[in-house]
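Posting here for the record, re: adenosine-5'-diphosphate.
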Amino acid sequence: MKKTDHVIRNVYAYFLTEGWKTHKGFFAVRSIKMLLQSLTPFLSIYFIPAIIAELMGEKRADRLIGLAAALVLLEFVLSVLLGTFNNLIERYGQKFENHFQMILSRRIMELDFQMTEDKKALDQLELAKNGMSWYSGGMNGLMEPFFSFLSNLITLLGVVVLLIVNAPIVLVIAAVIVAAATLINGKLNQIEQEGYRRLSKINRIFGYLGWSLVDFRYGKDIRLYGSKEMMVEKWQCFTRDWNRENVEIANRQLPLQLLRDGTQILHDIAVYFYLGVLAILGKITIATCIQMVNAAGTFTGSLRNMVFCYQDILKRANYANEFVKFMDYPPAMPKGTLDVKEGKHIFEFRNLSFTYPGSEVQVLKNVNLTIREGEHLSVVGLNGAGKTTLVKLMCRLYDPTEGEILMDGINIKEYDYQQYMQVFAPVFQDFKLFAFKIRENLLLKDSEEMDPVTDEALARGTLRKIGMEEKVDSFKNGLDTVLFKQFDEEGIEPSGGEQQKLAIARALVKDAPVVILDEPTAALDPVAEYEIYKHFEELVKGKTAIYISHRLSSCQFCDHIAVFSEGGVKEYGTHEELVDLPGGVYAEMFAAQAQYYVS
Ligand code: ADP
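Prediction output follows.
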């Protein structure tokens, strides 16, 4: 009980606060609707017995017409008002849906990177997404039972007075019936929630399959590796699981649903019997008997509604709590508060070892390395030697398992994370450009926010430097050309090399003190690669630059070369120092590549 109370408090505190911050008008509309709803049952409780009393008594035509007209008119006005408020609430619901989707996306982007590989965090994200949508019904789904509970409470207090005076046993009948219905309803909700937990994993796999099947970037591999059948088989297999799970939930719920509906019939029989006996014995008049039938129905209805609303609140709060939990998901890495000073920085890797989360293999072993201010370092080594991992650790996408990384003599964990991120402009092997305009990809802001003079000059100047200006100008929409065709028929599909150049341009626009190029030239031919490096050396003059490359042509431009092998720095020095080192890894790689180019 304690835990459920805590969940409800937690969820409603979060959503009421967030809702109040976003749309205060919503609460005014909901409160008025709540009052109107609680008044509605009293119309028939008051007017119908009054009409019957008049019919059985003096039968005055003007009074009868007056009562009937007032009843009809008030019911009409109430239903128009309720309809209007419902419409307003729907509109707010849509706004809230967009709002919560936006804050979820923002949270996902702010998550520590290593959580993107953490199965528990991914499952929690899936629970959060589903929990906030159809399962809880979003903001409206949460607020409907909440306000409904309050309006039923107001109604209930009103009819309780009437019943205590005229027919107190009705209160006992109602309490027993509602208690039985409550138990049954609780069981129904429990079955649904158990099913929801089991379905969450299936839904995630569904999402992955669905996305891969329609995403054209997977199209090449799906066709060339003939993986269509495998995808479809997997899809069918999970559909079977999904159906089986749903059928099982429905089968378990059916008898309980019938039983719950049966309690209503029992209630009606008992109430009619009791009030009938009171009327026959002359303890109440016919008009009062009818009023009590009405009041009893309203009382039981309100009480049952309150209990159902509470259960509904509990069920929806449990779903929505997954959203709140995700918003509060503990960070994977501690964050510091130190300000990062302007200008260049010196980095030192001290006894650094690293194992990826969830893996057993130590990828980096006791690495010691210093990168001085403005130094250009080439990192070479065979595939899987740990080169990319080193820069990922440097950018604090992960934290070392052992040892430390220092910037300007201070452990990088001490710095403010957002400021620390600003130190780097990396181009990773698996960089991603967005399906937006070219200028938006370079400057990373919405084109409507851009300054037509300075931003234009910055984008153009950078494209010129990397030899892409002419190419971009040749597109019909120039810098406003949209990349890829997901959202725009006129979008272009840049070649691998062009994409890399755009990614490099984006890194240059950021103008960060440390530039990292992780095999950025893999899609380029050796001549284009040489050109890029030659230019690049001019472009990053004065900045610290780290190049990771298989091709050793990059090394000629660098101050130092670090050769990685088996997770450690095996050799370190200048090209001249390493190229003739007897038995050296670099010397061997260089000889192999030189031979290849000469021949
Ligand atoms: P390199 O850049 O030298 O080719 P990487 O640093 O990318 O090498 O990878 C080093 C090793 O770490 C490889 O064996 C790779 O499989 C492993 N690895 C890379 N990323 C992950 C990850 N996210 N989880 C587990 N292992 C990883």
